[in-house]
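re: ur question from yesterday

yeah so i grabbed the chain u mentioned. its 124 aa long if i counted rite. heres the sequnce exactly as i have it in my notes:
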Amino acid sequence: MKSALLVFLGGGFGSVLRYLISKGLNNSAVTSMPYGTFTVNLLGSLFLGFLFGLSLKNPNINPGISMFFAVGFCGGFTTFSTFALENQLFLRTGDYFNFFIYMLSSIILGIFAIFLGLFFSRLT
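ran it thru and got these structure tokens back, copy pasting raw so excuse formatting
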């Protein structure tokens, strides 16, 4: 039950932060590119890679901390379903250029962000 509560709380914080970042970036953009989703997914990947790297260095990290941040916060903060919907909208409107740019850059840079987070965790 404690783990479920930690995931719930972390997910709530992550979701609110995702909303604020997405709202701010999407309202200020003059383009159809969904920079808010792109940004939170890359930041979430970076943070998750960092957390994973820390847990590899220190196997004694409290499991509750992992539940709160990795499962809860990162799960609520990043958003694959929104990413999928935005790509579907690009395809439906025939905007193949933005579809390919957004899809490929999100996947490639997301994986790179995991590696970068792992690298940063080694510096601590």
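noticed a couple things. Helices lie at 2-28, 35-57, 63-77, 80-92, 96-123. also The chain has one domain: 2-123.
anyway ttyl
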